[in-house]
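Feature request, filed as a ticket because there's no other form

It would be nice if the structure record came with a short human-readable summary line next to the tokens. Right now we just get the raw output. Example of a typical job, pasted below so the devs can see what we mean:
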Amino acid sequence: MNRRRITMVVAVALLAISCSGPSKMAYLKDMEDGTEYPASPAPEIKLQAEDRISIRVMTKEPELALPFSDAAASASGGDAGLYTIDHNGCIDFPVLGRLSVAGRTLEDVRDEITSKIQSKGYIKDPIVRVALDNFTVTVIGQTGQSVMKVENNSINLFEVIANSGLEPAASDIKKVMVVRTDEGKRVSYTVNLQSKDVFNSPVYYLKQNDIVYFKPKGVQLSPTGETALKIFSSTFSFITSIGYVSWWLNGRR
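Raw output as currently delivered:
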């Protein structure tokens, strides 16, 4: 066998080995460079039953805010300024009484409390801060699971990947499942992270208590079994390629 034929045999064998490895993973494969796509801001979070919200009332004269303080909240069944929304969508707030908050944004609740405190003459210029205390996202994948605490009430699917510590290469990123609970009902959505259409999905921006499930890609093996399979696959491809090329060369003699 001359040098040219030997070179051909080696080249084909190396190609077969390289093709036997896992394919490269790519996000947003259908986005084109320099092309503008519409971008929507993260929607405002709406409160739901069983959510916990933190409410703080402040003023330049601290004594005026005492009736709305943590001590007053604890006496009314709260926990250091935390209020759990009941199944009717309400909370019991000191002085102001029962407030309906489910289905409303944090800004809506803040504005209502501020308005009521002013209109009843309790405080002229109150500063009211309302925050969601239980914004968490459960992430499940091939390498484990975790519950992520979300800051600033905003997170998207790519941020989940970046912060969860999961290995997306072991997952089918074309079929990521998000399970959402809304108004007492659970709904599942499937999104493709390789497509720009993910930005238009109702679950691209996640909500409190969403579950993100990264399904495993194909047959999953233990680390030992996976290594053995890769070695076998590469060796088999190498032997097959050499056999094919040898048969082809012998046939031309």
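Something like this underneath would help us a lot:
Helices lie at 3-20, 62-65, 70-75, 106-119, 157-164, 223-251.
The chain is about 30% helix and 25% strand.
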